[in-house]
Amino acid sequence: SLALQPVITPELVQGRVHLRCSYSPPSPEPPVQFRVLWARLSSPGKREWVHHETTPQSFSYVEMDGANLRLGDTVFCTVTAFRRGTPEQQSLPEDSKGFYAGIKFLPESLEIAEDGEEHVLTVLSTVPIACPGQDDPCKITLQLSTEDLDSQEPGSPDVALSACQVDLLPGPCSGSSCAAATVTVTAVTDLAQDGNRVSRISAEPVAPRDLLWRAYTPRDVKVTVRDLPTGNCYSFTDPHIITFDGWRYDSYEIGTFLLCRSESRAFEVHVRQWDCGSHRSATACNCGVAAQ
């Protein structure tokens, strides 16, 4: 065992996306060669070999060509060392960690409530964004969409996004991110006691010129929306008023009044009451409402 510790990192080589497998050569260095096997996860627990080479270098490259290796693949490299002239004397093969090539959402799933709070969702690419040509924009645009999986009514989303599109722009890779953008997710307050519901957020590359991105659809994000109880207040006819906490009273005043105001957000309701009574009984009626 040589503790080669292979690690996969993404790189742009001549404008094309490559993966680099780097490993630590034994020290002091005898004349050693390395056999590097590249594989992708074809199904859970099953690997499919896509490339192999023998090299004296302490690294190996493979191209993300859209055929053998595609976006959405989890890629491994396995390294074995042997001395020149005695290939039968090999070190134990060592695996890298799986490298997921493609779009990731952080967090991978969300649980939010119908309370108006904004939750930040980060969209990142684990591979560099290549520039296809001089006249083409250097970015990948992702179209975002939402779908309520529990709704019987199409077109009634349970979550709202702050943007319908995000742009991933080229930049240096850092950690597991080569390009990133953020969007905020808010649960739609539907004023209905409809229980907890599940939605999903989908992303799709918009007309990419880069062949690598054309047939790629990133994984969805699952969003669980927790139902919250809804309060109601009323002002009706000659105004009978019922407050959020069930207190009932009548108001016979003439004029424009503040009916309701939130102390936590910009929301208030004004009501206008006019005289609708007779000489014998003074009565006011609702005749107008304004809501901010």
TrEMBL record:
<dbReference type="InterPro" id="IPR001846">
    <property type="entry name" value="VWF_type-D"/>
</dbReference>
<dbReference type="GO" id="GO:0005102">
    <property type="term" value="F:signaling receptor binding"/>
</dbReference>
<dbReference type="Pfam" id="PF25776">
    <property type="entry name" value="Ig_VWDE"/>
</dbReference>
<feature type="domain" description="VWFD">
    <location>
        <begin position="231"/>
        <end position="292"/>
    </location>
</feature>
<dbReference type="InterPro" id="IPR057885">
    <property type="entry name" value="Ig_VWDE"/>
</dbReference>
<keyword id="KW-1015">Disulfide bond</keyword>
<keyword id="KW-0732">Signal</keyword>
<protein>
    <submittedName>
        <fullName>VWDE protein</fullName>
    </submittedName>
</protein>
<dbReference type="InterPro" id="IPR050969">
    <property type="entry name" value="Dev_Signal_Modulators"/>
</dbReference>
<dbReference type="GO" id="GO:0009986">
    <property type="term" value="C:cell surface"/>
</dbReference>
<dbReference type="GO" id="GO:0005576">
    <property type="term" value="C:extracellular region"/>
</dbReference>
